[in-house]
Every structure is written in C-alpha cells, then in structure tokens.
Specification:
The complex is a heterotrimer of chains A (278), B (204) and C (699). Chain A is an alpha+beta fold and 278 residues long. Helices cover 26% and strands 14% of the residues of chain A. Chain A has one domain: 2-Layer Sandwich (Alpha-Beta Plaits), CATH 3.30.70. The N and C termini of chain A lie far apart (54 Å). Chain B has a domain of 92 residues. Chain B has a two-stranded antiparallel sheet with strand order 1-2. In chain C, 29% of the residues lie in helices and 21% in strands. In chain C, the strands form six sheets. An eight-stranded mixed sheet of chain C has the order 5-4-17-16-15-6-7-14, covered by helices on one side. In chain C, strands 23-27-24-26-25-28 form a six-stranded mixed barrel. A five-stranded antiparallel sheet of chain C has the order 18-19-22-20-21. The longest helix of chain C is centred in the N-terminal third of the chain and has 16 residues. Chain C starts with a helix and ends with a strand. Classes of the chains: A alpha+beta (278), B mainly alpha (204), C alpha/beta (699). Chains in contact: A-B, A-C, B-C. Chains A and C meet through α3, β2, α6 and α11 of A and β3, α3, α7, α9 and α20 of C.
C-alpha cells in the first residue's frame, strides 16, 4: 500500500527512481465498470436527467438539436426490423464506454486532454486542456462525446443550484461521461476523513445508477472478484457494443433477446432517420 | 562624414541606450509590472490569527477550519462559528466591534477575500492530505497561524485570483516551501512522493 | 545625444533583451490562459457548506420521498429515499429535476392582469388587494357558476375550496377529467358501499389486464409499479396490455393486444362475452350483481367475428385473455387515462370496471381492495369536469397544482359563459395560464408546506409532509390566504386551518389509532406508531422527513353491484382517413411543469417527443409522400398546424401519434400563433378527445 509522507525535502531527495516505480506498481488498481440490463430498461430517461443534474450539463438552447446537444447519457430507442404489430424495440442508454485498449479518443487527442486514469481505469477528459478540434468525437465509435457549441446557459437562480463537485465547462471544449468522477472524489474524501484510503463502494455510485428506478444498471470494480458486477458480466447474455473493434469497453450490456445482442455489433445510428433511410 | 564623426565622438551612446533600455525593462518587469498587475483590496475586517492561536485563546487550526465528517473542508468558518464566542464583544478592538455589529447581530456572512481560492476545475481534498498524508497546515499555508494581521489581499487583474496562488515572488520561484499554490507545486510534491495520478484525480 | 533610427533601435533592442529577462511575458501568458478558463460566461460554482434535507415531491399526486443535496441551503440535486415503503426510492425523470422549477424560465414573479382586449394581449402587474377586490366584485355580480378547478383533489387546499364553494349558492368544485383511479371510481359508483375507498392490491396480484394504462411509464406511484414489475420473474405477475400503440408499457408487457384505436369498449365487452358464454363468471359474483342481464345483453350483442372485426384482434386471443382472467388466482382489470389522450368515456369505463366484478376480484387479495372506510365522503361534492353543464361557468379559479395529465383548452372553454373571468393560481405562465385574466401566483413546488395523502390507487393509507426546501418569495400567495382575502371581500366567513394545523390534526389522528409505522428518511429505519411517545413526537418526525404507512386493510366486505351498462348503439365505422391520437408523458404535458434540463430527453435526444411532432408508420408516410423530419401540415376539423414528422415502425398504419409534449423553448403561450395539438382534437360529447379524424400533407 502506498502512503503519502509529510513534505520533507531532504527525506525524499535520497529516494531512488526504483523505489518510486515500485511504489506506483504496488498501488491498488481498480477497474470501474458498468452493466446495463436492457430488458429492464424502459426508456424513462431518469438516468439522463440525473446525469445532467449531477454533472452540471446545461439545458439546451432554442436552436440545439440532437446533433448539437450535450447528453453524456443518451438513451436511444432501437427498433427491430419488424413492422407493426410484430415490432419490438429496445432502449439503449449510450455513454462513454470507457474503452480499455487502444482507447480511440486517447490515441487521437493532440493535447493529451484525455487519458485513462491509472488508478480507476476511467477515461478522463480534462476540458481545460481541450482545444476543441473534435478529433476525439470523430474517433469515438459510440458517439459518446459532445462538444460545447455555446457557453453553458442557466437561469440566474439555477446557477446557484449547480453541483459544487463538478466544474462547468466552457464553450469550445469536448466533454463526456466520466463515471461521475466527482462522486469518487467525494467518496475518497469521506474515507480520508475517517483515516482510510479505501472507499466504501456504496459511497461511489454514479448518478445514473443511483437514479435508475428499474435498478437496471450495476456499477462496481471489475478487478474485485467479489463485486456484484464482476459476477454479473459472466452471464451468457452479456455483451458489449462493437466489441469487434477490440477496444475492450468497460461497459457491459445484458439482454435475453437475441436480436438485441446481434444489433450491438452493428453501427449505432444517431437518429431514426438514419435508421430508416440508411 | 558626420555619422562617422558622431560614432567616434559618442561611442557609448548606442551602448548606453541599449543598456538603459535593458535596465528600464528590468525595472518595469520586476518592480512596476507587479504593482500594475495586482490590485490591493481591503479585507472587510481585520483579523489576528495570533490572538486566537496564542496563549490567550489557545485554539488550534482545526477548531475553526473544520473538515466535516463527510470529508469536506469547510474553509473559512461561517459567522455562526465566530458567534459562538463573540456573541458580544470580548475585547475592546474596533474590528471585533465591527464583527459583532455588522455581521454577527444581523447574521450576515463576512465577505472575506480568500487568499487560496482556486479555479472551480481544481479539486483539492484537505481530508486526504491532512488525515492520510499527515501534512501539517503550516507545510502548505506557512506560519499563518502566528500572524497578527491579515496581509493585504492582492488580486490579479488578469486572472482574478489572489497573488498568493502565484506566490509573493513575481519570478514564481518560491522563497519558502509554502509559497505559491499553482499546479506545478502540487505536481512537484506528488512526484517526490511517488504518486502517479491521472489528471482527473485533481480536476473536477 | 541625437535621436537616430539606429539609437531607437538600440533602445528597443536593449528593452527587448531585458523584457525576456523579466517575468512579465511569462506571467502575462500564464494569467491570460487562466483568464480564458475563467470568463464570466461560465458561471462560478456555488461555494458553501453542503447539507442534506428531506422532503416529498409534489409534482404529481404520488408524492415520492426526496433527499435533497443542498449547497448553501439551496437544493442542487434530488434523489429518492432508498427502501421507501411507498415509492421504493424511485424518482421519475421530472422529479429528479424538480428543484429547478423554482427557477423556471416561465415563472411569474408578480401577480399579473392580462389585457386580452389589447392587441398584443399584454400583462400588467397588479397588487393582490386590487386583484382580489376586482375578483370579489365579479363573484358578487355573477349570474353564472363560480368554479374552482382542482387538479389534485384530496389535499387540505381542496378542503378550503369546498368550504368556499359550499358557502356560495352557485359554486362548483371541479376535478380533472383524467383520473388515475378511473376504474376504482367507476366501481365506486357501482357498489352499494359508498363509504369505501378502494385501492389496487398490485403487490399480491397474478395478472393485470390494462386498457391503455401507462403502468410502466410513471402511472400512479412510479416506484411502486416498478418494484412490482421488477419482481415479476419471482412473483409470476403477468401483464396484458390492450392498447392501440406500442407504448413503453406495451413493450414491457407479457402480451400486447394491438387493438384498433378507440375500440377499448368493444374489447372489454368481447372479454365479457367470453366470460359469460363460457360460464367463466364467478357464481358468487353473479348473485351480487343486480342487473346482470343488462351487461349480458350488451356483451352478447355482437358475434365473435364482429368483435374481431371491430377491435382488429383475433377472437382466439380475446378468448385466451378471458380464460386467463378467469383462471388466474388473482387479477385486476384496469384502465388508466392516457397522459395525452385523456380518459375513456363512461361506458368504456363501466365495461372495463365490470370485468373485475365478473371475475370476482373486488375485495379479494391481489384484486381491488378496500383501502379505508370513511364516515363521509366529501369527494361526492366533487364533479368531474365533464359533468359540468356547458356555458355555465362565469368565474373560474384554476388551482396551481398540475395533475400531470393533458387538458385541452377547448374543454375548459366550452364550460365557460361568453363573459367570464379566469383566475390562474399557477406560478407559471403556461399553456392554460395564458388564457387567464388574472395570474395570482402560488408558491412553486418545494416553496410551501404541502401534505401528501395516500395516492388514489394505493392499497394502504399513508401520509407524509412535503416541507419547503426554498424560502417563499414575498410576491406569491398561498391559495388559502388568497381565498381568505376573497371571502373577506365578498363578506363571508371562512374557517380555514393552516396546512401546519391540519398536519398536526392528522398526526394526532394517526397517533390515536396506533396503526401502521413510520419510515424515517434520514436513517431508513421503521418505527411502529405505538412506539411514539406523543402525537407531537410523531408530527416532529413527519416534518423531519418521514412517511407513515398503514397496514393493509384486510377487511373483506360482501358488495352488491349495480352495473347499468348500456348496449353499444353503433359499431365504429372504419374509414380510410387518418386518425390523430394525442400522446404524452405524465407531468411532462405542460411546459412549465418540467425543468428546462428535460431538454436532454425532448430536444437533445429522441427519447421523448417535443410538442409539434407527429409519429407515423413509414407505410403511412409513403402514402402521403412524407419523409422523416419533414415539416407537414396537420389538419383536423378544429384547425391546422405545422408539425415535424417522425417515422416509427411500431405505430399502426393509419394512425398519427401527435406529441402533447412540452414546448421547451416557447416563451409566450398567450401569443395567438402558438398552437398545440390538443387544440386540434375534437372533443366528443362525453368530453373525451382520444381520437380525431385528421389529414396530413407535405408542405
């Protein structure tokens, strides 16, 4: 276990590089992941709203549309190809899939504004570093990144109702889901106040998971073999979107319907228009 | 002809001008620039840490600057905290009188200028630095607890943050370990202690 | 020294060298980069202590428990209370952003008077006293009826309205035509015990047959429904949804019967037909029914083939449904108003309700149970909006609370006299308030103390208190204070308890019965009422954030039923023209009742449809040469409007689903150009607007 020592310059200068590396490796690593049971999701939208409130995502401007909006968590309704009344559809909450391998956004960012957090596996976006080239948006296979086309706008009263744990972003930068990292901060500082480095898993629950009225989303540490999520992803109906790309997303889905599982390998379309007219 | 004569006659003019330009700029950059860059703003009332931490009151930092149970650092205490002792003036000072009359009785928060205010996107947990890394307050904040007066709050006209974030020394080279609160100071210490953190560790 | 170009260059050269040896350039660069991240267009975060407060959501009658994270005492985030006995800790999407409503862009800060006569229909501020005097004189000289339209009956404010109207000779207390307990209230009319409050015992039921009730789309108490359906694998609960469109509930149902639009009446009769013909009616039930012959006559009027033809459902499926109903250990048949399309007509409601009687589900576990027996039922004074005579109302007060269900302005208008005065108590200038003559704003949600009684569909009694989370602005007035002022002006006496007093009385009543238990929001513990020391103790707990819930009332009473069902007069004709069905989502049918952040669902994604959108089957679209995202002209007998077209294969060919969603960026509903789809709907003689003949054409 790694321990921060008090600031003592003399003590630390004598430390060899080897020691530093040893220490970094001995740090306990988490791999946060999520699993969504699509058969339980009925597209109520609570997750999307809770997400926007938690992460200080502003409401839309009048001109904003589905292409220019900012929805870290966006729920798509995907129909099967059948006609009424054989039609069926599935609601798919889509957000940053936290790719572990060759993370497309990390690879392309010219600014190093995106990186995989070494301790949590969360793909972190630093809007302050972002120069707004939107290369990452083009690279993201899940369309899970959003660009601030305008400055955020809230009514004066709503500005006092922002979540103090997440900084609002400015015009011209890209943003995305980070598994409510602000809540991890809060959980860590709560643990720290009690003298512990280990957080209580109940303290770190992203807003979408907490708000889902159907309890369709499970969240936890994939590295921790005893966690609910690491058990749940072993189910035979578990799949990931576009797994053929090999980016190893840390967001899993589950559905008993075969057509839903097959759909996951097709490119996800942004609008029903694309769906119907190709 | 004339030019050549001048050049010969006043060989030091060019050098002199070069030198005076050089020196003038140094004066501007090192002395005048900081005066222009920073604007002094008075604190609403004067406050002596020394009176509180000294033998008279004998308080510790944590008595007022509390880390709450959920690990949030509450920063400068609310006026209600002051009112616990100063519901009516204890001493004779004009500042204390002002505190009681203008803030405690009408229950109004004191609009302090905060020396250590960071941008919203910076995240810092006092709890983990104090409780886990066992840093002492003085190691980052210096001997502020012994100060008898609040120093003048100087706000940077461009960035809008306090001078204390950059450090007293305009060169950015700290003369004391606690001087300056910019990101490189954080990184410096973390590196020294072998922490390899991602950006989002300290950015929200 | 001569000033030469060369010398100046040297001076500049020297300065330049010096410049880079000062901190100036680096510092300015650094500071400006910080400035760019810190400009005023990105709002600063609120700084201050973070605390937790507890309350209850009052956006709809469900009244879910709410935990609010506050910064500086101002709520910045709402979340449900885990393990809440009534709502199971689930908040709906609107409830999660309910704290924004205080700062809604459509909020009316001051009392206003509308000058509809003026060309731009301007508003002007008016003082409460002047407004009250003007209204009082209207009331005094009125010949027509004085009505209060209460969208959420059963509150203490509702009692005040009763008291006020009772003192007038021409008072009408009107309720919303869409009632979530439509089936229960229809049954209530049919049974001989009119002091019984009925409720659905969903927790123990095996089968639910729902006629278009959006059970899984925030109907009733959303969290309760989700809990029940979340456990369906273990409990074996089955849902049969009878609905013309594939709603979210139909998607999640076990069986979906996609009937033709507006044929629910016939579907219910078809099921009754099978039950009667195949002797599946419970014999015991049969003996309790007074006029069974009438129902029998109605149900047997058509042959199976005719029923199939009318409803578009194969009769074998109807037979299976009826058999499942009869064989199931416990079953409930219910209807629910559609948030957009409104209620069914009375005959349909009776037919649906009577199925419960035939299968004997009244008064049995897992069926329709008695929640409570009460001595007098004041609700009898209440009149459904549709029961009011046309053109009778002269002065109309519209209560501030939203029922969550759509309300076409045409429906209100037809009950009004030509010369009328409308007073809106809404804190927002929304679609309905835009028609008012006066807006006397009530406090917004979470600004006043509101009590939360048991939901009308609930099987147990419950009570909690929504304590204010915000300070009330001085420019708003509580309805009780407004009515105090009005009665004084009219010269009457009104004994009005404050909500606080009423809550205390209720707490004393609960304490004296010693029934049930109290669930505390802060620590999630449950404590029986008998363990409380005093009524004050209980009351204090309720104010701190707690929910009292009773034990289920297991009394089984034999009922007698009077069905009085009229046989259908005519068979609906099949036409080639398109039918328009309004579609909405509970609470989100009005622009002011949801936070602007709901743009995430309505505008920035396609999860829910904004106002001015229609969805049609691609087949229908091809027929009318429409493509996705086209702008089309939607025409009915009532009017026309421009709409955006969306294609969806799950919609019946020939049906236009028109969204009664919010117009999120609309700022002026009093503008004559503003048109909502409800104004295009034909209001039937029964006061329903479920179906309208319509035309679409490409612009």
């Amino acid at each position: 276990m790694h321990n921060l020592r008090s600031w003592n310059v003399e003590n630390n200068t004598s430390k060899g590089l080897e020691n530093l590396i040893m220490e970094t490796i001995s740090e306990k690593k988490s791999q946060y992941g999520m699993m969504i049971d699509l058969d339980r999701c009925n597209g109520c939208g609570a997750c999307a709203v809770a997400c926007a409130v938690e992460n200080n995502v502003p409401p839309a401007y009048q001109q904003t549309n589905t292409r220019t909006g900012i929805t870290w968590m966006r729920v798509f309704e995907i129909p099967n190809d059948e006609q009424f009344p054989q039609s069926d559809s599935v609601f798919v909450p889509m957000f940053c899939q936290q790719c572990e391998n060759e993370t497309p956004c990390v690879t392309v960012c010219p600014q190093n504004a995106v990186e995989i957090d070494p301790l949590t596996g969360i793909v972190g976006q630093i809007p302050q570093r972002c120069l707004g080239c939107r290369y990452c948006m083009a690279a993201c296979p899940y369309h899970a990144r959003y660009f601030n086309w305008r400055d955020p706008k809230w009514t004066d009263g709503m500005k006092l109702q922002l979540n103090p744990d997440v900084a609002p972003r400015m015009r011209g930068v890209v943003e995305k889901c980070n598994f409510c990292h602000g809540r991890l901060h809060t959980a860590r500082q709560k643990a720290a106040a009690n003298g512990s480095e280990k957080i209580d898993p109940n303290d770190y629950v992203p807003a979408c998971v907490e708000s889902c009225p159907n309890k369709a989303i499970i969240f936890g540490d994939l590295e921790d073999g005893s966690s609910e999520i690491s058990q749940a992803i072993k189910s035979k109906n578990t799949f990931r979107f576009l797994s053929r790309l090999g980016t190893e997303p840390k967001v899993y889905f589950n559905s008993g319907r075969a057509w839903v599982r097959e759909m996951a390998e097709q490119a996800l379309t942004r609008t029903k228009k694309e769906e119907i007219y190709g | 002809m004339l030019k050549r004569k001048l050049k010969i006659a006043l060989p030091s003019t060019g050098k002199f001008l070069f030198g005076s330009g050089f020196a003038g700029m140094l004066v501007i950059g090192w002395f005048i620039f900081p005066m222009v860059l920073y604007k002094s703003e008075p604190q609403p009332i004067q406050f002596s840490h020394k009176v509180h931490t000294g033998e008279q009151a004998g308080m510790a930092c944590e008595d007022c600057h509390v880390i709450s149970d959920d690990g949030r650092f509450l920063g400068i205490p609310a006026v209600a905290k002051c009112a616990e002792c100063h519901s009516s003036p204890i001493g004779e000072s004009a500042n204390e009188k002002s505190l009681v009359e203008n803030y405690i009785i009408p229950n109004k928060e004191i609009p302090w200028h905060i020396y250590s205010r960071q941008p919203d996107n910076a995240y810092f947990s006092h709890a983990s630095h104090v409780r886990l890394a066992h840093l002492k307050c003085e190691e980052c904040h210096g001997p502020i607890g012994e100060s008898a007066r609040l120093k003048v709050y100087q706000v940077n006209r461009i960035s809008g943050y306090s001078r204390d974030i950059w450090g007293e020394n305009i060169s950015g080279i700290p003369s004391h370990p606690w001087e300056g609160m910019k990101m490189d100071r954080c990184v410096h210490c973390h590196e020294k202690n072998g922490r390899r953190d991602g950006c989002i560790e300290c950015h929200k | 020294m001569n000033i030469t170009r060369r010398n100046i260059l040297k001076l500049i050269g020297g300065s330049a060298v010096g410049f880079f040896l000062t901190p100036l350039p680096y510092k300015v660069l650094d500071d400006s980069s910080i400035w760019t991240q810190n400009w005023s267009l990105t709002p600063p975060l609120p700084q201050g202590p973070v605390s937790i407060k507890y309350s209850n959501c009052t956006l709809c009658a469900a009244g879910c428990g709410v935990k609010a994270k506050c910064v500086n005492g101002i709520p910045c985030q709402l979340i449900g209370i885990p393990r809440h006995p009534i709502d199971n800790g689930a908040l709906c999407a609107r409830g999660l952003a309910g704290h924004h409503l205080v700062n809604h862009p459509l909020r009316v800060a001051l009392p206003q008077k509308f000058l509809h006569k003026s060309p731009d229909s301007a508003m002007e501020p008016i003082s409460f006293q002047t407004a009250v005097n003007e209204i009082a004189s209207q009331i005094q000289k009125s010949n027509g009826a004085i009505a209060v339209f209460d969208q959420q009956p059963g509150r203490i404010t509702s009692e005040i309205y009763f008291e006020f109207l009772n003192q007038l000779s021409n008072g009408i207390y009107a309720t919303h035509p869409s009632r979530e307990d439509a089936t229960l209230s229809t049954l209530h009319e049919m049974i001989d015990k009119n002091n019984a409050k009925l409720g659905y015992d969903f927790e123990n039921t095996q089968l639910i047959v729902s006629f278009g009730a959006p059970l899984l789309d925030d109907w009733g108490i959303p969290g309760r429904m989700r809990k029940i359906f979340g456990k369906r694998k273990e409990s074996g609960l089955k849902l049969i949804q009878i609905e013309s469109c594939q709603s979210r509930t139909a998607l999640q149902s076990d069986v979906w019967l996609p009937i033709k639009p507006d044929t629910e009446y016939f579907a219910a009769l078809a099921i009754a037909n099978v039950l009667i013909k195949e002797n599946l009616v419970l014999l015991a039930a049969l003996r309790q029914i007074t006029d069974f012959e009438k129902l029998k006559h109605a149900a047997l009027q058509f042959t199976p083939a005719q029923y199939s033809e009318i409803t578009g459902i194969d009769f074998s499926i109807i037979r299976q449904t009826a058999n499942k109903l009869a064989q199931s250990k416990s079953a409930i048949v219910l209807s629910g108003p559609n948030p957009g399309a409104g209620p069914f007509n009375n005959e349909t409601e009776k037919a649906i309700a009577s199925l419960n009687i035939l299968i004997g589900s009244i008064g049995t576990d897992g069926g329709i149970v008695i929640r409570d027996l009460q001595k007098e039922n004041k609700n009898h004074i209440a009149r459904n909006w549709n029961a009011i005579q046309d053109h009778s109302i002269e002065v109309l007060f519209i209560d501030s609370v939203d029922s969550g269900y759509a309300l076409p302005w045409n429906l209100i208008e037809r009950k009004l006299q030509p010369q009328h005065t409308i007073i809106s108590l809404s804190p927002y200038l929304n679609e309905i308030a835009a028609h008012a003559d006066y807006i006397l704003p009530s406090p917004a949600p979470y600004e006043s103390l509101v009590e939360v009684p048991a939901h009308v569909t609930s099987n147990v009694n419950s009570f909690s208190v929504a304590v204010p989370l915000f300070a009330k602005p001085e420019t708003v007035i509580e309805p009780e204070n407004l009515f105090k002022l009005i009665t004084q002006s009219v010269g009457m006496q009104l004994e009005i308890p404050t909500t606080e007093e009423a809550v205390k009385q209720k707490a004393e009543k609960i304490f004296s019965t010693k029934r049930g238990s109290v669930f505390s929001y802060s620590d999630g513990t449950t404590k029986p009422v008998s363990e409380f020391l005093s009524a004050d103790d209980l009351c204090k707990k309720l104010f701190e954030g707690a929910a009292w819930s009773d034990k289920p009332n297991n009394s089984h009473h034999p009922f007698r039923f009077t069905l009085n069902i009229a046989a259908p007069k005519n068979v609906p004709k099949t036409t080639n023209s398109l039918v328009l069905i309004p579609q909405g989502w509970k609470v989100a049918v009005s622009s002011s009742s949801i936070s602007p952040i709901l743009s995430k669902l309505f505008q920035e994604s396609e999860l829910r449809e904004n106002a001015g959108t229609i969805s049609i089957n691609p087949e229908t679209a091809t027929r009318y040469r429409l493509r996705s995202n086209d702008t089309a002209l939607l025409e009915t007998e009532e009017g026309k409007m421009n709409v955006r077209v969306k294609l969806n294969t799950s919609i019946q060919p020939g049906v236009i689903l028109a969204s009664v969603g919010p117009a999120l960026n609309e700022t002026n509903f009093s503008d004559a150009t503003y048109n909502d789809v409800l104004s295009l709907c034909t209001i039937s003689d029964h006061g329903t607007w479920r179906i309208t003949q319509a035309k679409v054409s490409k612009i």
